[in-house]
TrEMBL record:
Family from the record: Belongs to the class-IV pyridoxal-phosphate-dependent aminotransferase family.
Classification of source organism: Bacteria, Pseudomonadati, Pseudomonadota, Alphaproteobacteria, Hyphomicrobiales
Gene Ontology molecular function: any one: branched-chain-amino-acid transaminase activity
Organism: Neorhizobium phenanthreniclasticum
Reactions catalysed according to its record: L-valine + 2-oxoglutarate = 3-methyl-2-oxobutanoate + L-glutamate; L-leucine + 2-oxoglutarate = 4-methyl-2-oxopentanoate + L-glutamate; L-isoleucine + 2-oxoglutarate = (S)-3-methyl-2-oxopentanoate + L-glutamate
Entry function: Acts on leucine, isoleucine and valine.
Protein name: Branched-chain-amino-acid aminotransferase
Amino acid sequence: MNKTKPTFDVKKNPNPVTGEQRELLLANPGWGRVFTDHMVTMRYSEDRGWQDWRIEPRKALDLDPATSVLHYALEIFEGMKAYRLPDGGATLFRPHANARRFRNSAERLAMADLPEDLFVESVRALVCIDREWIPSAQGAALYLRPFMIGTEVALGTKPSCDYIFCVIASPVASYFKGDGPAVTLWVSENFTRAAPGGTGAAKCGGNYAASLAAQAEGLREGCEQVVFLDAVERRWVEELGGMNVFFVFEDGSLQTPPLGGTILPGITRESLITLGRHMGLTVREERYSIDQWQEDARSGRLTEAFACGTAAVVTPIGKVKGRTHGFTVGDGKAGPVTQRLKAALTDIQFGRADDKHGWLDRLF
């Protein structure tokens, strides 16, 4: 890992959003539609490595039609947030975990290796220059999207020699409307998200693109999200279109599908496992079939289920629908364990509780 703190050129936006306009935007930012004034960019070439590190006004990227990302999907990204603290300061949540996962994703797609300190310093720098964009409303945060794309101009099927790394930021409210009602899932039987040996554990755009047809099918069936089964037996629950999943049983224990290359190693997932065990709960990482899920929900053995991720945080699952499945989880609402875990996580993230695990990276 490169231990040298990067030096960078700063060019402030000459026409930033006014304070009055920003306040209006922050009052109801929605999700991923409003963006801050600046962006971070850094370029890579095989002969020079990473260089040209900048903070500059947010602008469009200028890409040649033959740029490799447009033809071979050489793209990876991360999702993370900056949180406003009670004293007016701000913090990141486990940024080094995002940096490690970013490197793992790059390795899987044969992309350039970005040292973890460069990743973290880039995120820190953008948040600090756009600090006024961090919302103060309940549950709102500044969503950060670091990403890297292959930029070599060539049509040969090979790893790119050139890359751009960027960080952009977007103030966000709740991912799902209402911030509380349980979601309904659609069981995908025609599509799978990932297969053994594939890119399921990498956070790359191709995985999300592959999920969209199933997601659209679920929306047509009146569901907010899709749940994917394994690609081999079409039996085992893996994850949602963009979130990991947990199950809560009548004895208070938790279970989540194990990582094995086809499931994204979610940072929220890992944090909830730690928090659950810290609370004295039994947490298992074991396979769980869709048929067993239905049987346990109907018998009452399963009392709660929830999805989790950086964007949606912790989202209760109320109903599950499919061509051959249909059941309600518990009373169809957020259960006590789900609510307790969400409160424990968000209280740490927003500085309302002690950070006993050393997860916060205070910025100012």
